[in-house]
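[job 4471] stage=fold_predict status=RUNNING
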Amino acid sequence: MKKFFFIIIILRGRIRELTSCSWKEYLKSAGLGFLNPFLYYLVLLEAYNGLPAQIAMVINYLWPVVLMILSVPLLGQRITRKMAFASGISFCGVGVLAFGGNPVGGHLPLFTIGLALISTVIWALFWILNVRASGDAVRNLAESFFFGLLYLVVYGVISGKLTSLCSLDIRGVIGSVYIGLFEMGITFVIWQKALKLSETTSEVGNLIYLTPFIALVFIGSFVGEKIGLWTITGLLLVIGGIVLQDLGKRKYQ
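[job 4471] inference complete, writing structure tokens
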């Protein structure tokens, strides 16, 4: 992931910019790196470890709503009533999915649910601060993830969770490379560009609600979790909110 960002910078002939930043810019990158990937993935993976995959995934998809809310005070953006109403419908759908019951049995731990909710705030805050940051977006991501890597190494050493490189499973290494490249590398650059080009963050954020449907299909097919009626009901509300917002935009274009 970090190497991917540096490769892009090298190909663009802007490698000198990495060493020409001010201490203030480095401090900003250090703060962003603490938020993501360090803090965000520690919180998110802990939530995923204590919840069914479909519940944790759906709660995590509350972050576009958080992104829209935080963009008002932090980016000075305006949200129309129709955008808020449509997003509210999608929010209700996510709520139904999250709290309609545990599809795999047992009780849902409130603390772990809280961690999943906190992860949405961290994720949204990270991207809003990235939008506000000056300079090249790819360079900013490279620097923040460099600091994030340092935090993770220090955390791994202190917690004793950093194992010897010789004992790593090759399947785990391949999986880590795949996640770093396709979940955090290429997609981060594309997402950052989309936020920069959009007039409001909600225009991009609401499109993210389409992906839980695909994710639930994968969870049902590969993880083996049974997708319940509450899940389907909540998903219809999520998609309905997106369609309503899209129709509202077209009407006034």
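[job 4471] summary: The chain has a mean pLDDT of 76.
[job 4471] exit 0
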